[in-house]
Amino acid sequence: MAGIIVGLILLVLSLVAPQQFDRVRGVxxxxxxxxxxxxxxxxxxxxxxxxxxxxxxxxxxxNAELKxxxxxxxxxxxxxxxIFQENQQLKATLQLHERERETIATGxxxxxxxNSPRRYAILSAGTSDGVRIGMPVxxxxxxxxxxxxxxxxxxxxxLVSDRxxxxxxxxxxxxxxVIAQGRGDGTIxxxxxxxxxxxxxxxxxxxTSGTGGLYPPLVPIxxxxxxxxxxxxxxxxxxxxxxxxxIVEPPFEPEAVAAExxxxxxxxx
Amino acid sequence: xxxxxxxxxxxxxxRKPSPLAAYLPAATxxxxxxxxxxPIVATSGWYPDFGYLVFISWxxxxxDPWPPWWAAPLGFVxxxxxxxxxxxxxxxxxxxxxxxxxxxxxxxxxxYWIEWVLAAVLIAIDQWLQWRxxxxxxxxxxxxxxxxxxxxxxxxxxxxxxxxxxxxAWRLGR
Lengths: 269, 174
What we know:
The complex is a heterodimer.
Chain A: H1 2-16, H2 22-56, H3 59-94, E1 105-112, E2 120-123, E3 136-139, E4 142-150, E5 155-159, E6 166-171, E7 177-182, E8 188-192, E9 205-208, E10 220-228, E11 231-236, E12 245-248, H4 254-260
Antiparallel strand pairs in A: 1-2, 1-12, 2-5, 3-4, 3-12, 4-5, 6-7, 6-9, 7-8, 8-11, 9-10, 10-11
Chain B: H1 24-34, H2 50-61, H3 71-82, H4 88-106, H5 112-136, H6 146-172
Helix pairs in contact in B: 1-2, 1-3, 2-4, 2-5, 2-6, 3-4, 5-6
């Protein structure tokens, strides 16, 4: 049947040259994006009522705990401010120029690829907000992923937990360079760049290193939850299910990314 | 064809198929594909491929829910809405139509369990193919992660098949 042949040709095309279908995928996102966004409002409100009610449960002891946490946080904040000032001075003496990090767009994560082995999310911001394919996406709590399809009103994000998303990273404790790669099941596998002793401990925070030029440095990615023989399994800090707002930023070093995605270079390893 | 539906139903005077009867099955398949737009943010891909479930439910119920070549455009719509690589559902759905036509010709009789087993096999092939294609671009998780998705889809199938049979009775005015 001709349908099978047509389908196979399309499939090979979309695997070999995915950018062929950018336009048509964008249009499809524009059709479903607003529906998803509208429904998301409803479910978010309903979920908010339930968790809101749950928060009143055990309010007194929660209150005491929060007060304790707040005094601890205040101390840490003063320390951080002092460190920040010192840092500024040191940078000034080194004459290090730091660029302002700009925000292209903010959107809500309204949907996901819940019926596929790939890990995508739908973001309610598109090309009309300035979003372009390849831009990194983060939330206040950590790195979310990068844009792979962009429609006018909505876009599709390749989450950090997707197997095809490899992020150059390092450990917050010690700064050991590592590689973070999604596992396709909502977790991330972390491997050290240098072969040797397993440097990870449970609870270690992994942050982006900025290598490669796509993702900005110092964005938290994940927290180590399980050790393995040659690495560790980590949970993303920005859980797309609870992330309400996501921020789209321009590629950190656009020149480096352009050079890498030039013809001849592999797009996804 | 064995299970042709749109002919006159005997003994039901004054009741006839609704004017849109020929298009309702395809419309429900598109609706199934559109379920991918539900605002579910999951970290695992364990939800069923609703478009395909509705598709095989119709095809198992009737031999002629739509002209055979419609499988390709319906698959294309599913690919677009679900974010699968374009062409995956086009090829798979066309192949499904062909396979079920062959099976229709070979089998003498069918019952509830045989249809469920057939659906289970088709669902497993669907999920395996998705996994295989993800593997080509280096994005496949361990196959163990696909097993819950397959089991959930197989368990959801009877519910979808029931809904489709209700829709079929309604469109034919029975």
